[in-house]
Recover the amino acids of this structure.
């Protein structure tokens, strides 16, 4: 196996040879190329969330991983690194265009250094670029995709957290709970809601629960079923359920799954539902002799 | 395993302490029906707070108890169904139709008081 | 075949874990059901295992309730049978499998038994549709005079 020489290679048109040549060049010029890259990152006003030292440190790691991937032709290590890097920089507010930008800058820095070195031998330069291009593209892709996937995962988690928080079970009066539901409910969220509600009834000793679905645009049969089951379970805990904000579409869905709407306690809007609940609880009735008639 | 049954004025309170076997449930049924007769109780509270599972047999038996007790002129209310148990019951498709439920002992007593008052009103001739 | 994305189910038939005193314990559990006390025992085992596996209290209750129904069916119709609890592991989830089997008279018309009208509201209903509603997966095999085996699974979310 011939050691790659700094002089133009001979008749071998084996891309492996040129790749090795390329990698050797990148290793030899590591310091200078990293610095150039870091400089250009700053010039392009990318990674502004990070300090110069941090940029250089990350640039070093990316550079080494880049060269490693070029040399080995395997990308697992690079993928793992990309995910790891993303995990660290996403909370710092680094965005996708920045990550794509810096990877493309590195490509450019390396390509230019290849031009500079092999400009006297155009055909050699060509062959080296032929070896370089596909690998470089794949690397850019791997890093960008890794970053985007990590970002999507984080966004999903955040949305989930918001969903959980945005459906609190509110105790507005003694013995009265309100559960305002907003958005589309999937089966998992439906389960969460039921758990929170039933536990809330127990904790707050609620006698009336107002479930407001004004903010729910649509509900499929399985979630509608789940809603009905929740209402039935609530009754077993001795509480009355009032449903408010029932749209004609959702009413239709309920009827389709066999719910007898006349058996469900519904009121047009949330305010009306709260008033009805207060009436049931005896808040607005002037107390007279016999409470037995109030319910 | 015997379920302790306490007498509280006109009411009987059966507090289930732990998981009940089918035989235990049937014994409870017989005990309650007998004692309602002996004490002429007006109401029965069955506290199932400690029951971690209510299956078809438990549900059916409790319904039977409520039915038999009503035949003796008394009201029955089940209290303390745990949230998870309530949900499992509903998912299983069991109905506790005809059986009153309340959140806890306090609510159960309140319910029985009200039910007794309503019945008392109906029994009395209308005041002039 | 690469593991990523593959949903091969590695049925962890024997999930071995170190017990309290360091000895390895096998977590497959088998309960013979013959009396009403066995029903309580099977439920308890199911709940304990489900909780140890990290199922939510709500799911553990669903599991225990399903076991109760299945065990009761065994005793009602076959007098004697077995409930087996098996932890499951997939690449993306873990779960619990419950097998209720007996060598009893079997169910002549399984389809009918799975219809909702044939449920526990009747005095001696099988309650199978209800059990199916409690769990994520449900399978039944039954042959007249040979016996019945119901397999249900619940996955941890």
């Amino acid at each position: 196996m011939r050691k790659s020489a700094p002089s133009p290679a001979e008749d071998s048109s084996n891309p492996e040879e040129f790749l090795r040549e390329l990698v050797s060049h990148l290793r030899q010029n590591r310091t200078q190329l990293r610095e150039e890259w870091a400089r250009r990152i700053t010039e392009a006003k990318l990674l502004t969330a990070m300090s110069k030292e941090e940029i250089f440190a990350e640039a070093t790691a990316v550079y080494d991983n880049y060269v490693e991937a070029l040399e080995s032709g395997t990308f697992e290590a690079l993928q793992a690194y990309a995910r790891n890097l993303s995990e660290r920089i996403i909370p710092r507010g680094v965005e996708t265009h920045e990550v794509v930008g810096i990877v493309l800058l590195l490509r450019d820095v390396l390509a230019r250094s290849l031009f500079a070195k092999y400009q006297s031998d155009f055909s050699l330069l060509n062959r080296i670029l032929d070896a370089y291009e596909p690998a470089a593209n794949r690397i850019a892709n791997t890093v960008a995709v890794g970053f985007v996937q990590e970002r999507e995962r984080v966004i999903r988690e955040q949305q989930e957290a918001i969903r959980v928080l945005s459906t609190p079970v509110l105790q507005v009066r003694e013995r009265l709970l309100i559960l305002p539901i907003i958005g589309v409910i999937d089966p998992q969220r439906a389960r969460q809601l039921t758990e929170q509600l039933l536990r809330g009834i127990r904790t707050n000793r609620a006698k009336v629960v107002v479930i407001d679905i004004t903010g729910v645009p649509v509900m499929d049969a399985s979630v509608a079923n789940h809603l009905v089951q929740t209402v039935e379970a609530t009754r077993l805990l001795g509480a009355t359920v009032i449903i408010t904000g029932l749209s004609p579409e959702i009413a239709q869905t309920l009827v389709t799954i066999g719910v007898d709407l006349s058996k469900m306690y519904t009121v047009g809007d949330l305010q009306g539902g709260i008033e009805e609940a207060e009436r049931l609880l005896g808040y607005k009735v002037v107390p007279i002799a016999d409470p037995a008639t109030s319910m | 395993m015997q379920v302790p049954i306490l007498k509280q004025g006109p009411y009987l309170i059966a507090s289930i302490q732990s998981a009940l076997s089918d035989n235990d449930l049937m014994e409870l049924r017989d005990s309650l029906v007998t004692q309602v007769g002996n004490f002429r109780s007006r109401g029965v509270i069955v506290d199932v707070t400690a029951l971690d599972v209510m299956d078809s047999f438990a549900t059916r038996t409790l319904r039977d108890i409520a039915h038999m007790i009503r035949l003796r002129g008394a009201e029955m209310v089940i209290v303390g169904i745990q949230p998870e148990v309530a949900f499992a019951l509903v998912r299983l498709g069991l109905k506790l139709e005809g059986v009153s439920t309340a959140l806890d002992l306090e609510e159960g007593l309140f319910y029985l008081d009200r039910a007794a008052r309503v019945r008392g009103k109906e029994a009395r001739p209308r005041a002039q | 075949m690469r593991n990523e994305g593959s949903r091969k189910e590695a049925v962890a038939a024997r999930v071995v874990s170190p017990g309290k005193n360091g000895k390895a314990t096998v977590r497959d559990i088998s309960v013979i059901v013959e009396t009403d006390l066995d029903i309580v025992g099977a439920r308890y085992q199911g709940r304990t295992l489900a909780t140890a596996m990290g199922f939510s209290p709500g799911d553990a209750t669903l599991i225990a309730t399903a076991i109760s129904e299945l065990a009761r069916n065994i005793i009602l119709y076959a007098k004697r049978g077995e409930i087996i609890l098996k932890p499951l592991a997939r690449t993306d989830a873990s779960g619990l499998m419950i097998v209720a089997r007996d060598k009893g008279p079997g169910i002549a018309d399984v389809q009918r038994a799975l219809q909702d009208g044939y449920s526990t509201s009747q005095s001696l209903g099988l309650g199978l549709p209800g059990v199916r509603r409690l769990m994520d997966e449900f399978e039944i095999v039954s042959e007249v005079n040979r016996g019945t085996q119901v397999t249900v699974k619940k996955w941890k979310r």
